[in-house]
Specification:
single chain; about 300 residues; alpha/beta; Metallo-beta-lactamase, Chain A; 2 domains; 7-stranded mixed sheet; 11 helices; 16 strands; about 25% helix; globular
């Protein structure tokens, strides 16, 4: 599991920061990539990475402002032109279906893969045997959502060497034991599979704020998260400006991570008004003064999410 930031700017593209898109690479977990938002030129950013568009399985849109969705039509079309065949699902607020369908129709773009568009409300928006994704409304100028991605606990590995020591040879019984079942051997012995399993591996949690003022729902989404990705459009001295434009400051992002009990915080969606190394160092310091385990993302910043975090 790895985060790769494809765009970390706010509002409009800049020379050093493209508009918003964050990739959650789940190549080991499900041989797939999920995107969170898809700002203009996201597909151009992808060209500078190892991401293959056909591996993009899901796209979660936080809200319908252009800097978060204008990259969708081009990416969807290119994925088709490049031979993508696997299903792709887009999740987002009301309006996302009309936007995508209208652009594809007007440009007569015919996709070679199944596309599903789900207009979400608060609650669990996706769940299978390995992951769950929850969405909550956040405080922005238009309907907007933050997301919480929860990896389900991974069952512990089978203690194969211990089984061999007691005379249980590899075979069909191993799968039953790995499932925690009790099996009866040919000699009449009964073996409880749970006695021969390593402890389960704890699933990881990643939270995404989207664009928002300081709000309680982000704290809920980020509770005990391994990583919180939080917008920090403004520095602490611009708190009034942040409030007026429905955004957050560095300090507010840090306080949210602290209150949520998150393990790490990554700042993104940074205004172009903050240029140069010194300015960015100051933004990072403002957050670290409250929450020391903070990073400030830049375009193509990569952050592996280890189970040991």
């Amino acid at each position: 599991m790895e985060l790769l930031f494809l765009g970390t700017g706010a509002g409009i593209p800049a020379k050093t920061r493209n508009v918003t898109c964050t990739a959650l690479k789940l190549l080991e977990e499900r041989k797939a990539v999920w995107l969170f938002d898809c700002g203009e030129a996201t597909q151009h950013q992808i060209l500078h990475t190892t991401i293959k568009p056909r591996k993009i399985e899901k796209i979660f849109i936080t809200h319908m402002h252009g800097d978060h969705v204008y990259g969708l039509p081009g990416l969807l079309g290119s994925r088709s032109f490049q031979g993508g065949e696997d299903e792709l699902t887009i999740y987002g607020p009301s309006g996302i279906k009309a936007f995508v369908n209208a652009t594809l129709s007007a440009t007569q773009t015919h996709l070679t893969y199944p596309l599903h568009i789900i207009e979400i409300e608060e609650g669990i928006v996706f769940e299978d045997e390995t992951f769950q994704v929850e969405a909550r409304r956040v405080s922005h100028g238009i309907p907007a959502y933050g997301y919480r991605v929860v990896e389900k606990d991974v069952p512990g590995a089978l203690k194969a060497e211990d089984l061999k020591k007691i005379g249980v040879k590899p075979g069909p019984l191993y799968q039953k034991l790995k499932n925690g079942e009790t099996v009866t051997l040919e000699d009449g012995r009964m073996i409880d599979g749970t006695d021969y399993l390593e402890p389960p591996k704890k699933g990881r949690i990643v939270a995404f704020s989207g664009d928002t003022r300081l709000c309680e729902n982000i704290t809920r989404l980020a509770k005990n998260a391994d990583v919180l990705v939080h917008e920090a459009t403004f520095g602490k001295e611009d708190a009034e400006l942040a409030y007026n434009y429905y955004h957050s400051t560095t300090e507010q992002a840090a306080k949210t991570a602290q209150e949520a009990g998150a393990k790490r915080l990554i700042l993104t969606h940074i205004s172009a008004r903050y240029q140069g190394e010194e300015s960015l160092k100051q933004l990072l310091k403002e957050a670290r003064d409250i929450f020391p385990l903070t990073e400030a993302a830049h375009d193509f910043f990569s952050f592996p999410i280890d189970r040991t975090l």
